[in-house]
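A further point concerns the way the authors explain their paired sequence and structure data. For illustration, here is how one protein appears when written out as sequence plus structure tokens:
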Amino acid sequence: MSDAFAPLTCPTPDATAGFAAALARHLGPGDTLLLKGGIGAGKTLFARSLIQKRLADVGLYEDVPSPTFTLVQTYSDGSVELWHADLYRLNAAPDLAELGLDEAFATSICLIEWPELLGDLAPTDALTIEFAETSDNARVLHFTGPSRWASVIAAASQSVQVPHD
């Protein structure tokens, strides 16, 4: 069962990055974020910021490029693997099996751009974040997922003081 939670407006890219960094500390093995939105909506910025925060917290730094051409990039913060997948260039559903996402969903933190291409393989306990652009270049993040995500979203948004709509 999926619930919709109050949307969050990020007026600047820094606010989007700040929310992602705040959310990073609330994630653990088996957590998946499905990042939806058009090209340039802020999905990669969000994923990059979240991954860099997890790594920085243990004294590591990675450039965290977009996985548009590699499809998947993996990182480790020493306690859990972080998978960043961009499925935009995926040709067919059978290609998903070759990526190993099914195993990663159970043991890693997964950030999936263009999750629509997962079809039935999308984890039912994932948090979906849809990025919508506004006329003033802000991003409104719309959240859906199991009710357990409500407290995670609230804690992360409070820590960066991003206003809920």
Remarks:
- The chain has a mean pLDDT of 89.
- Residues 43-56 form the longest helix (14 residues).
